[in-house]
Amino acid sequence: MKPYFLPLLLPLSHVAIADNQNDDAIETLTTTASRTEALATPLPLTISTLSEAQLNSIAPTHVEESLQRIAGANVQRGNGQEYLPALRSPVLSGAAACGGILTLEDGIPLRAAGFCNINELFEAHSEMAKRIEVLKGPGSALYGSNAVHGVINVITPDTTQGGGLLGLDYGSYGYARYKLRAGKDYGNSGIGINASVTDDTGYRDDESVKQQKVNIRHRFERSNLLLTSGLTYTDLDQQTAGFITGFESYKNEDIAQQNFDPDAFRKARSFRAWSNAQWQLKNGNVFSITPYVRDQSMDFFKHFLPGTPLETNSQTGFGVQSLYQHNLQSNIKVNLGLDGEYTRSDFTQSQNEPTQGSAFLVATVPQGKHYDYDVNATLYAPFASIDWQLNKWFISAGLRYEHMQYDYTNNMLTGRTKDDGSECSFGGCRYSRPASGKNSFSNTSPKLGVSYKVNNNNTVYANFSRGYRAPQAAELYQLQRDQTTANLNPEIANNAELGLKGYYSDVSYALAVYAMSKHNTIYRDSDFFNVNNGSSRHRGIELEVDYALSKTLNLQFAGTHAKHTYTNNQLVSGLNINGNEVDTAPRNIANLDLNWQAFNNLALALQWHSVSSYYTDPENLHSYEGHDILSLRAKWQVTNKLEVLARVINLTDEAYAERADFTSFTGDRYFPGKPRNAMLSATYTW
């Protein structure tokens, strides 16, 4: 079954859901759309939410399993907790492609703006989140750099209100997860903990994941002040299985299970702490300020590069977010804010053993240290917006100015020599180190949105917004071959969107049509230079619907039809890719959940997830055929406090690839998907 643009439907907890017995709707609140609590329905934008109940029913082993249910999202798993993301975009890859989507936990970016990591969502506690909100389309007018294609915000539970949870997940291939949630409410204050421990020996040879995550929350209330503080610590110790190579090698069970990079690993630690103070002022005005600190480090064996070097990186910093909401009139609200951040980062890449391979690779990829540098980065960003409710019209306009500066120090010899200063043959060494210096970037990001309440149940909207991201430190300072400096400008995306959302009888829906154009796209060209002249066009349509077929049967379907094309003249293998489809960008992605409340205490769900074919190279000469995966879940409410969940993923034991890729060096390569696997979960709450 291939969804060649069927009606594309999605489980929508953010859409007003009709009560069968009356015309009133259950309104859902969002914090991601405006950085403060607001009703989602009248806002002139698309934001999807996965609720705590949905997340508990999914019991995800990886954040990708949750985001399958978001129209427009396409997260491709690598190995372990690794992944490559897409949100109204092709799958983003490369040293700094992570700058295309901003990821948050409790509204605070997981990484500093110039130092993102493509896998950074494994540092959020998505496995035990209260909800996950996904803002689609540029969010730079509110969040600044990196919010080009959208924002993913993992919101942790308020454990200070008391109650608790004990849980155990046990599954195929040595998977186990232990979960704890507990808190104590003292009235005007409270404290709580949210923790999980994961141990997964994995499907493939010599792979494993050991991961621990903990959130601690504190609350204090007094008069007109609410003070909420949080802390997140994560630790990942992963033995990684890399790509397998050969056309459709994922269909060979013996090859798919092998690990051809048994020495590969990733060790990552992250610590974040924040405290939000919110004052209720006169006339309903509100002022809030959120200082925060981050400390992160990672050791990463680059099994996909010649010589398999070791990367070590870390970043330490602090920042503040502020927001003042002023009710100018009863129907006009003005929002003013100032964000600031300071980050100190260091990066080294070194190779312990001689390179294996051709004479060229052996000569140009030397043993020893490749990069060693520090970067001190500062960012400040004032922003303002206005929301105006005029009868059935709702108008929202905003503007953010952002300035970022890097102060870069090279701790090695400048240029493309070996670490001892000697030259490489074949024209020089692969890695080039620019001289110490400073780079700064400034940008203004506007937005304008208008919605109209057609009737009590339905709203039509339009918005125009600009996404922005500054060049990442990796793009500026990890150069190759003859490049000595990278003269890069920020990437810009201009987006227009038209939508309709609401409910009718037993159906809730949200339709969105968008058109985005990106320019100043940064990529590495055929000379191995980081350049800034890429451009692309992104067009798509999403229809999200939740349909109650009966009192016991519910249909939820998530999907998108989109086309992403190159619009710049660039020769790749002698072919001009202008007009080609961007690689790793399936046109159709769909997810169907059919939920049946069989008895009062027993529910069943059948899931169908479909990914259509896509090209795996810019020349559009190689492709992956796509896949369809069926899964089954059952939930048994044993008592009011005890719940048991069983699931079988890949019910038909389909041979498929989580990710397919093609390079001129390796040919076709894949991350194979898991064969049929099962998990049993038990959760006790109080």
Automatic annotation (TrEMBL):
Predominant location = membrane
One GO BP on record is: iron ion transport
First and last residue of the signal peptide? 1-18
Do you know which SUPFAM superfamilies this protein is assigned to?
A: Porins
Query: Keyword set for this entry?
Result: Cell outer membrane, Ion transport, Iron, Iron transport, Membrane, Signal, TonB box, Transmembrane, Transmembrane beta strand, Transport
Tell me which GO cellular component terms the UniProt record holds. cell outer membrane
Return the similarity comment.
Answer: Belongs to the TonB-dependent receptor family.
**Would you tell me the protein name for this molecule?**
Ligand-gated channel protein
